[in-house]
# Entry
Amino acid sequence: MGEIRSPYFSLGQYYSGDNSDIHSPYFSDGGEDFHGDNAEIHPPYSSAAGDYHGDNAEIHQTYSSAGNYFGDNAEIHSPYSSAGDYLADNTEIHSEALFHQDIYGNSYNAQQFVKHGKFWKDRVSKEREREGAEDEFWDALEKDENKIRQCYEAGFHRNKSSERFLDLILYDAVFILELFLKYREGREKYTKDSILKEGWLRLAIRRDLILLENQLPFFILEKLYELLPVTVKGENTEFVTLACSYFKLHLPSNFSPAAKMPLHFTDLVRSLLSFTRNGKSVELIKSFHSATKLRQAGVKFKVPREHNCLLDVDFRRLGTEFHIPQLEIDGNTERLFRNLMAMEMRIYPGQEYICHYINLLSILVAKPKDAKLLMENKIVIHNDEVAVRDLIYSLASDTIDRHSCYHDIFFSVDDYYKSSWAKNPAYFVEEFFGNFWKGVGTVAAAILLVLTLVQTICSILGLR
# Structure
């Protein structure tokens, strides 16, 4: 690996100078400048082998939080272990930023990456204001440099000067702020923008910004955002609201980020997805029943009309309804959940609510027919029940703990199941005629029972 470069773009010498051009992501010119006008385009997260990291590759990751959650030389064993996926089996994640690593490969078309518009110049009209904003940004970074460095492992910044390190943070932060603000204003306003005009690129960057290895400390992004002039950021818009809008996250009315600031975007996503589970007790679950078994016992699966977050699962004994918020599975679902689960296991021991949710799904979806049942009830949006079952099984294979914040739901479901199974004839159909051999065995046993009964009756009559 060569020298670590800044991600996504360069602003020339200054992020808001008169002649500053914002260049598109994922490329460098191989020279001293970060990107340059004639930069060659390289795909993110690639190697000469052509895949994301290559066989037995190692992903170097940065973020460890201000509490040094990962620690020096700490290793996170990769959750990205599904065969044929974007990481090879047995990959390990080390701490060093993907945002800041050199990029290799040539699968992107250079013509698709053009200069951005002079966003900052257009928004901050006076040169004095631009220079003042730049000085404020730099002063803020210098004041919090030690705190920022504590959010990364020592190996990432050990050999970097203060100016070099803060340059990297500044470039990343300004790119994120500009991206969020442009997104809020609408793509129609930036029809020539090299990112906003390309749907695939917008999606790729949104996905990358949530990955655990690509994070900047949330506190510094929020601090820099607050330093922006009102003409740039608008009035009465908090940074967390801006971030949620960009990531298409629902922000509950009673959600208060002030109570506990997210560590980064990955942590923000987790906190919103698991909002109603926070503070729930975690206990061992002992009884498990698949979705089809529960349906045979009379349980109805429904998508709740109102819910605060994805993990807002509920079982209503009175109506025998299992309410599960809708989960739409796409090409990014596995990667997102693995990032969230990896972060939980490392940072939130005992509060792995995303992991508990995946375990709940894995219990309900024991077979493809269970996945099909949830798909038919619009709880899972996908077109292949086998793929859904395999995905959930793969995710759950990384979590072996059977303690869950859903223990009360499991208890209620099991209690209902035990008391109601005999009332539902469908149970007997599944239990005794679930497949060919079960059916043959059941019929044979019934015939044997009838013959035995007839023989007994004949014997009794013969005695008379």
